[in-house]
Design a protein that fits this description.
Radius of gyration: 15 Å
Helix content: 25-40%
Oligomer: single chain
Number of strands: 0
Shape: flat
């Protein structure tokens, strides 16, 4: 399954289209929570030091759009199991 979300800057109609897709997957999951391939456990975003302000702006935009965001938008955060060297140096 591909990643389905509406994070980031989107036009209003495109944002709503993506939300409809998410709703369909949530409805499917509600009907059968045992589906191992269907999960809603979040995402990961990283950036370079010169992209910090753009990342903060993205974070604020997502909060304004109703995304629950458990992450902090400041400093360096380590997450268990995430290998920093596995990602692209330019960010996600």
């Amino acid at each position: 399954m591909s990643w389905l979300n509406s994070a980031g800057a989107r036009s209003g109609p495109y944002h709503l289209l993506r939300l409809l897709g998410i709703d369909r997957y949530r409805t499917r999951f509600a009907a059968d929570p045992a589906l191992e391939w269907l999960r809603f456990d979040g995402g990961l975003w990283w950036t370079t030091p010169d992209g910090a302000e753009r990342t903060r702006a993205r974070h604020e935009h997502e909060i304004d759009r109703g995304y629950r965001n458990a992450g902090q938008c400041s400093g360096l955060h380590f997450r268990p199991g995430v290998k920093a060297r596995a990602g692209r140096p330019s960010g996600a």
